[in-house]
Design goal:
The protein is α/β, with parallel strands linked by helices. The chain has a single domain, classed as Rossmann fold (3-Layer(aba) Sandwich). The chain has nine helices and five strands; from the N terminus they run E-H-E-H-H-H-E-H-E-H-H-H-E-H. It has helices spanning about 20-30, 35-45, 50-65, 70-85, 100-110, 120-130, 140-155, 160, 175-185; strands spanning about 5-10, 35, 90-95, 115-120, 165-170.
Length: about 190
């Protein structure tokens, strides 16, 4: 039996770029475990009895202010290790948000961490987010722009995107995105 080196694929990008499309595909079609950074924030928002859209930015920033800028990466690292302890050799991360989180995970996992940026023009991303059916992630254009600015200015979101090992430009239909994702998975020997 071939023993695979452990690998982590962190998918990064701005809201509406296509991160969820990639992670949903990797989970559904390849059975890979996916750890969502954002879900930890949404869980905390719910625990506090707040609104996911209105209060998500506040809670995300409050968690970092209270527990340090790498708080989500620390939680994610523990979840990654649990998968590795169960002899799972591949883990997918959805939404590595900040440069600090990237540096923290890279310090732990080194070259086992591969970062894939999904990029799309702003007008396409905005339209995708505004068309979402998911009620807990439904934003107005003003809320979306406010969120994006907060992620760039307060969460250092640009660092992992700019420093990604691979980038896919996603301005076509989802099938093209998945085809490009598969090419990178083959190239990196992730699967």
């Amino acid at each position: 039996m071939k023993i695979l080196q452990k690998k982590i694929l962190a998918i990064v990008g701005m809201p509406g770029a296509g991160k969820g499309t990639c992670t949903d595909y990797l989970h559904a079609d390849h059975g890979l475990p996916v750890i969502h950074f954002g879900n930890m924030v949404y869980e905390e928002v719910e625990r506090r009895g707040l609104d996911n859209v209105k209060d998500e930015i506040f809670v995300r920033e409050d968690m970092r202010a209270t527990e340090g800028p790498a708080v989500l990466a620390k939680h994610v690292a523990r979840k990654i290790q649990k998968h590795f302890d169960k002899d799972e050799t591949r883990v997918v991360l959805d939404g590595l948000y900040s440069w600090t989180e990237y540096k923290y995970l890279h310090s732990l996992f080194g070259s086992d961490l591969v970062v894939l940026a999904i990029a799309a023009p702003k007008h396409i991303r905005h339209q995708r987010v505004l068309n979402r059916k998911d009620s807990h992630r439904k934003y107005t254009l003003n809320q979306l722009v406010t969120r994006e600015i907060a992620e760039i200015e307060n969460l250092e979101k640009g660092g992992p995107i700019a420093n990604a090992d691979y980038t896919i430009v996603n301005e076509e239909d989802p099938y093209v995105l998945i085809e490009r994702l598969e090419q990178i998975l083959t190239q990196t020997k992730f699967l």
